[in-house]
Amino acid sequence: TSAALGVVEPWMSGIGGCGNLLVYLAEEQKTYAIECGVRAPLALDPDRYPLIDGRDSDLFAWPAVVEDRNVVGPASVAVPGLVAGLGLALAQFGTMQWSRLLAPAIELATRGLLVDWYSSLKIASAARQLIQFPDSARCYLPDGHVPIGEWGGPLPTLDQSTLARTLIRLAKEGPASYYQGSFARELVRDAQAMGIELTEEDLAEYAPRQSVVQGFSYRDVQVSTVPGMTAGPTLCRALNTLQSDASSLDLQDPMRAYTQYAHCLLNAYEHRLTHDGDIPEGNGPSCTTHVNVIDRMGNVVALTQTLLSIFGSKVVLPETGILMNNGIMWFDPRPGRPNSLAKGKWPLSNMCPAIVHHANGDKSALGASGGRRIMSAVFQLISFLVDTSLPLGEAVHRPRIDVSGTDLVSLDQALGEDVRQALVSQFPVQMVDHGIYPSLFACPSVAKRDSHRQVNSGVAYVLSPLSAAITE
User: Fold this and answer.
1) How many of the other CB atoms lie within 10 Å of CB of 471?
2) How confident is the model at residue 223 (pLDDT cuts 50, 70, 90)?
3) Cα distance between residue 132 and residue 135, in whole Å
4) Which of 39, 322, 414, 434 has minimal Cβ neighbours within 10 Å of its Cβ?
5) Looking at residues 202-215, what average pLDDT do you find?
6) Residue 98: what pLDDT?
7) What's the domain range around 351?
8) Does 153 reside within a domain?
9) Does residue 183 fall inside a structural domain?
10) What contacts 24+ positions apart, CB below 8 Å, involve 107-112?
């Protein structure tokens, strides 16, 4: 599923990106985390990213860097980790062969990308940057134009044969070949030809991080998140603040409830952006995918994978067809900060997959796409599920606020004037429409295991056109 998603929605994620995942094994009753985020190249020089006046227009609204080098183009690319993470997950927990797992992605890439209205929209949103790079333009802007299907005619198809050949080779040689050996050497040459500071040493030294997750308590449930350089610790801080309130949360009083949410999120983000980082995150379109899986045995996976921005760095490698991430954007470009740029460093990411272990034995896997907005959505979704026992569909689609790194609270207009008045008396507030594009809130999803009936259910977010809930 992970590799196939990188083919059918290449603007969101892919083998040039990264991810984080949680795995709950029912037989062991243990939860494991695999952190496979990006890492700064060992040759990275922070002086290549001088600050200028203004702010970038992408996900994090950092202080602007000359030529947007940390956001777009070769200098924005970090060492990708998704293939290593998937390989480790398969080795530790998998039951299938690597080649079988890549087979659907190979078939889809061989067919080519079928361009519907949503694909056209996504490509159009990044066209001004994609056109700057010849191989990116060749892949996504045939004849220099956004591909659009004609009324009543067949949908256009974009050629992904170069990527298909790469996937076929990876299927034969295994995930380790991405990081060491002849394929890794060819990948490095391909990247360096585009001006990317990627070396064989970068790939050979990359290693995903695995841990057993103890989780933390919220009300009467246990919540598991990915530790380390993710939004998991921030989620823990926000939920701990919420449950420390002496009074119980009552969503029948939305004015008070959403005010509590705003306080918790603002405090958690203040700590995150001031203190969190790997020592020795705006409002642009994000490109993240989240997947929840529960099997018939009750094993649970929550996976978030990303290229960061929409189409990542906007750079497609000419020989391998891999669309590369823009992971350097995750770093704070200002020097002297916990999350500042440095060679070989792991950035602070916004991915926040979670598994909720309910008191009755049920399990819920959840997460979201949406850049810095992810943690706010996961935080509120957990509260909706635990504090109100809302059905999955109502919890996923209940109107939310968003707090994502500034003092500003974004408020879904569906929450109404009373909630706005309650919030505006304490915070800067903006009322926003919640639509398909631009998406001003994260797009959550959830899957749940009813341990008593041994029944699995799931809900996808209706405002995300490519999201779906499926069964075996």
Assistant:
1) 6
2) very high
3) 9
4) 414
5) 97
6) 98
7) 2-112+160-459
8) no
9) yes
10) 108/4, 108/7, 108/8, 108/160, 109/7, 109/160, 109/161, 109/163, 109/164, 109/167, 110/160, 110/161, 110/164, 111/157, 111/160, 112/157, 112/158, 112/159, 112/160, 112/161
Band of residue 191 on the pLDDT scale cut at 50, 70, 90 = very high
Q: Residue 8: give its domain's CATH number.
A: 3.60.20.40
Select from 357, 275, 313, 278 the least CA-distant residue to 191.
313
319 located within any domain? yes
119 found inside a domain: no
pTM: predicted TM-score of the whole model, two decimal places: 0.94
Please report, rounded to a whole number, the percentage of residues in the chain having pLDDT higher than 70: 96
Residues in a beta bridge with 443: 369
Question: Which pLDDT does position 326 carry in this prediction?
Answer: 98
Residue-wise burial string across 245-256, b where 16 or more C-beta atoms lie within 10 A, e elsewhere: eeeebeeeebee
pLDDT digits (tens, 9 = 90+) for 264-274: 999 998 888 77
Residues labelled catalytic: 288
Q: Averaged over 182-202, what is the pLDDT? A: 98
- Residue 22 CA from chain centroid, whole number: 14
Residue type (1 letter), 269: Y
